[in-house]
Amino acid sequence: MISFGQMTRVEIERYIAETREKMRKAEMMGIENEYRVLERQALIAECYLVDLSQIEKGKIYKVISNEDLYFKVDYLKGVFAWGFFIGGDHHEEAIPVSMLQLNKRKK
Asked: Which of 36, 53, 62, 83 could cysteine-pair with 74, CB 3.0–4.6 Å?
């Protein structure tokens, strides 16, 4: 398999769709560990669809799929945002940029 950075947007979207289908099957079969691995693979693939220029250093973003979790971005390294969870124990952590809720810019 080629790296996500070398894939086209269409290829990445196809990979994500196929991975989500595998996730659905793993969930139906009750294979929790396989489901979690596939979920992470899809999450990393989604990072390559994010416009990194929309992420501002020093800004606080809501974490997708968690109502009360916010993350302050200190810097980006690859497809990971490094910083701190608001209200956490303030040690530096990295999360995939696809976990950040970004405002969609109007065209």
From this structure: 83
Q: What is the model's pLDDT at position 68?
A: 86
CATH for 52-99, options being 3.90.190.20, 2.40.50.140, 2.30.30.340, 1.10.10.60: 2.30.30.340
- Written as six digits, the tokens of 91 are 């040690």
Which tokens is 28 given? 């139906």
C-alpha span between 11 and 14 (Å, rounded): 5
CATH number of 4-48: 1.10.287.880
H or E element at residue 81 = strand 80-85
**What does the alpha-carbon distance between residue 98 and residue 100 come to, in Å, rounded to a whole number?**
5
Give the per-residue pLDDT at 104: 58
Mean pLDDT by 10 residues, the chain (107 residues): 90 97 97 96 96 95 87 96 90 95 63
Check residue 105 and give its pLDDT: 45
* Beta pairing, strands 70-77 & 60-62: antiparallel
